[in-house]
Amino acid sequence: MKIDRVRADIVGNPWKNWVIVRVDTDEGITGYGEATALTAAPQVAEAKEVSRFVIGMDPRDPVRVRDALYKGTYLNMYKSTCAIEIACWDILARSLGVPLYRLLGGRVQARLRVYANGWYKTEREPRAVAERAREVVAMGYTALKFDPFGNAYLQLSRAERKLSLAIVAAVRDAVGDEVDLLIEGHDRFTPAVAVELGHALAAYEPTWFETPVNSRDVEATCHVARQIPVPVASGELFKDLEQFRRLLADGSVGIVQPEPLNCGGVSGVMKAAAIAEAHGALVACHQAQSPLNTAVNAHLHTAMPNFFLHECFDEFLEPWARAVFPGVPRVVDGYLEPSDEPGLGVGFDEREAQRHPYGEDQFIRLFEVGWEQRRR
């Protein structure tokens, strides 16, 4: 079997265009991966450029394919490299007639507890966010992630600090003590501000404070984690396994969030999970992309002994999103399981995708007022 074509398509999700990479073979088996970023057009061009390194290779050797892409791009872990690697795992599993998780060690987790994200598209006001939180818990979710910090960058004014904490307090009061609250920092604060907020947040017993400082700064992340009583989670921006090793080395961080689209696809995430396991840490893969990546993470998490929580936006996306990706597993009573169909178990409906074309203004602006409503 040989790779004979690599193609990238854009699906115009309103607040972030999705980039879906298709890998075709000479035996008629197709696999899918994702190369979504805050921009889209560069990833399409990138996929076309890097395909020269893998045309003619056997896709049933996904790690070898990834290695060729990594070396061909002068030791860079591009989004398209990760997407092609994922698509090759999809092809391998399809060719064997088994779901992907079987090739990763089989089913360790009977089902995956999901945390909801993307649900708080409402006015940034405590009562409004709290009411929406009640609605999401009524859907069956037992864990909610949200960013209460508006357009803050590096610091918070007194008024903004008061409002942000009031939102967290209102959500906690609305959902009770049994629901996990995951506070998203989006890499935005200085270490000193992050430490101050970590102590203030402790009163509401969050399950974690995610990326409170720039997560590429491993030393600052560990410093904050040592200083606050709330667990810190990080790692979604990491591209190198060495970054996970440094993050976990002193034991201050116990939750890592590898993103398949950043750290090397399926094989990269499984290696990061092994590093975490060696350090006694838990894994909650990052997922803020299309439903296709929901399916990828479901297979990864199912095969992990140190799985913690599964991130999912899917029920809060545009109503047509599922139609583009037939076969994506659905959240039922706050839990999810991967498909038992061969490969990822997910298709890509190109006709439906074409109804939602690329939008040049469709990208999230995290540090502008109202970004959390994702209305662009």
Descriptive notes:
The chain is built from 13 helices and twelve strands. The protein has 376 residues and is an alpha/beta fold. Strands 5-6-7-8-9-10 form a six-stranded parallel β-sheet, with helices on one face. It has a three-stranded antiparallel β-sheet with strand order 1-2-3. Strand 5, helix 6 and strand 6 (180-184) form a beta-alpha-beta unit. Helix 5 (126-138) runs parallel beside helix 6 (158-175) and helix 9 packs parallel to helix 10. It starts with a strand and ends in a 22-residue tail after the last helix.
In short:
With 376 residues, this protein is an alpha/beta fold.
> What order do the strands of the largest sheet run in, or round the barrel if closed?
5-6-7-8-9-10
Strand content: 5-15%
Query: What do the pLDDT scores average to?
Result: 97
Q: What can be said about the biggest beta sheet?
A: 6 strands, parallel
What is the string of SSEs from the N terminus onward?
Answer: EEEHHHHEHEHEHEHEHEHEHEHEH
Please tally the helical runs, counting DSSP H or I stretches of 4 or more residues: 13
* Helix proportion range: 25-40%
The geometry reads as globular
Q: Would you count the extended β strands for me?
A: 12
Low-confidence stretches: none
**What is the straight-line distance between the termini?**
42 Å
Radius of gyration: 20 Å
